[in-house]
Amino acid sequence: MSPSPTAPLAGLRVLDFSRVLAGPFCTMQLADMGAEIIKIENPDGGDDTRHFKPPSAGGEAHYFLAVNRNKKSVALDIRTPEAKEVIHRLAARCDVLIQNYRVGVMARLGLDYDSMKERHPHLIYCSISAYGQTGPWKDRPGFDPVLQAESGMMSYTGEPKGPPLRHPLAIIDTFTALYATSAILAAYVARQRTGHGQHLDIALLDTAMAVQTNAAQSYLVSGENPIKMGNSHPAAVPVGLFETRTGPFYMAVGTQRLFARLCEKVLDRPDILADPRFATNPARQENRGALFALLNEIFAVETREYWLARTIEAGVPAGAVRSLSEAVEAPEIAARAMVRTVQHPTAGSLRLLGSPLNFSDTPLVDPAAPPLLGQHTEEVLSGFLGMDAAEIAALRESGTIPR
Hints:
Radius of gyration: 26 Å
Helix content: 25-40%
Distance between the termini: 51 Å
Low-confidence stretches: none
Mean pLDDT: 95
Largest sheet: 6 strands, parallel
Number of strands: 13
Structural class: alpha/beta
Strand content: 15-25%
Number of helices: 18
């Protein structure tokens, strides 16, 4: 079968009221797969992340550029009666509405799920919030690092004798975006069967709990809290950072078979494998300190390049500890098209991260630059909704769209 020129989600339309990270990252995944994203922004400043700078390119904040490619921006003051009618006209022609305002905001505007489904029963309505649309904390504000703390995640992150640490990336927002993407696609499939949309209630707190997987299950089984392990792994040994003569590298020896390869093919030390202290993974857990000291002593004799070559040849997972710049500029990253160049209206030639998704028959769309605030307002109103010049002028006069 010949590859299709059509992206997998071509024809799907999304009305996007989301800002900052979780919602925009979700809609960017949909956009990469071919969905048409109509991003509704406040004419007075737009998405909050437009102001998260420096650094910036062409006056556009790096944070906004990171998660808003392949979208159309419509500047619309959703508080006006005229804007609400525009929204209903857009919703009638869209498949999905996504929003991540605090609980109650969309209801006060008359744009919550219960209000929208009366006129648009086909609409898949995705709400992303910190604590969910129900529950005792639903009205609380919350951001990613707060959820890392409240979910218990920070309590076992960091060095054993150090304080709890947050992950430097907004990982709860990112995971939430991916869960929301999955939920939207599942609801889209369900609509093909049922003929109607539904409400998706996606909470950062729920996600923060769900992604703790084996750590949470360890507690559920044992009743004991996980402890901080630094760069090591609580169950598999040896996993961690090791020092060589020319710098550190990270090695993950997660199975008995890999440990045998490490001892026999990388280190040329079968005696370590035969040592009762290290012969099994439980024994290695009990004698972790002694094993790490021995390995660091051996690794210190040769360069990092030497040991990486040997681990790769032996099939033992290991890698250099690289800076972000080293990783971004690496040839293997370029070979996978994970850095792409687009032309931006103010920044000119702009490099962005690419999508990790690869489809054999329905390839993703080529990346387009993140939009300027309100860049597509008239295009959407006239081309998508068929408004004439007089109608658009009236919206300007009412303050619904920028003058």
